[in-house]
Amino acid sequence: MTAMQTRRACPDDAAEVAGVHVRSWQAAFAGLVPQVHLDAMAPSREEPKWKTRIAQARWPSSGVLVAETEAGIVGFAGFGPSEENPAVAEIGMLYALPEVWATGIGKQLMSATLTAFGKAGYTQATLWVLEDNERARRFYEAAGWHADGAVVEDTTGGASLNKLRYRRALGRPPHRLFRDGLEPNGPSRRRRGGVSSRRCP
What is the pLDDT of residues 46-99, one digit of tens each? Predict the structure, then answer.
């Protein structure tokens, strides 16, 4: 695989981020979320939302990080303060194109996101994951996250699914996040990485 970097997203990245969002959802949630909902998703409808979200980010307390190769953006993570407690960080989304699963993309995005949390002064972080999404749960648990007992109902697409809240204390060095190099779909390759020096125009 070609070299990869992580960097802060720019509003001009919205189209690519929307494409990753839709394709990752259609692959990751097949069999969990009603297929009619997944089939109706389209990058063109998601792009304006992403442009606004990226433009309104307040780095480093909130923002979007992208994973980029020579081929373009292949993954992203969106984060910000939790609605329940603004002193706690929350990862709202962390997705990658299906063809780059298990290559280290998720691990590098997670490391870069936790680095941003540290710069913002957060000491705790949370995220929500579908109870039946075993692949994602293994990924987060390998990175030191644990279910804290909170459960909510998710009705995306008309289904009734449980979402579990995962929590993690911050401060652990990002390069030591994952046990045994685990990635969502298997062992990852070791890569250099971090937030690049590239800046938006």
Answer: 999 999 999 999 999 999 999 999 989 999 999 999 999 999 999 999 999 999
How many CA atoms within 13 Å lie on the side-chain side of 125? 30
Is there a contact between 135 and 101 (Cβ–Cβ < 8 Å)? no
Q: Give dist(CA 175, CA 108) in Å, integer.
A: 9
Q: Indicate left, alpha or beta for 104 from its phi (over 0: left) and psi (-120 to 50: alpha).
A: left
Q: Which residues contact 197 (CB under 8 A, 6 or more apart)?
A: none
Entry pTM: 0.84
Output the six-digit token pair for 131: 């109870």
Any idea which residue has 């001009």 for tokens? 12
Asked whether the beta carbons of 104 and 182 are under 8 A apart, the reply is no
DSSP states along 18-67: HHHHHHHHHHHTBTTB-HHHHHH--HHHHHHHHHHHHHT--TTTSEEEEE
Please give the Cα distance from 200 to 9 (Å, whole number). 8
Q: What letter does residue 95 receive in the DSSP assignment?
A: E
Q: Residue count of the chain, please give it.
A: 201
What is the distance between the alpha carbons of residues 65 and 79, in angstroms, rounded to a whole number? 9
E strand residue ranges, 53-160: 63-69, 72-81, 89-96, 124-130, 146-154
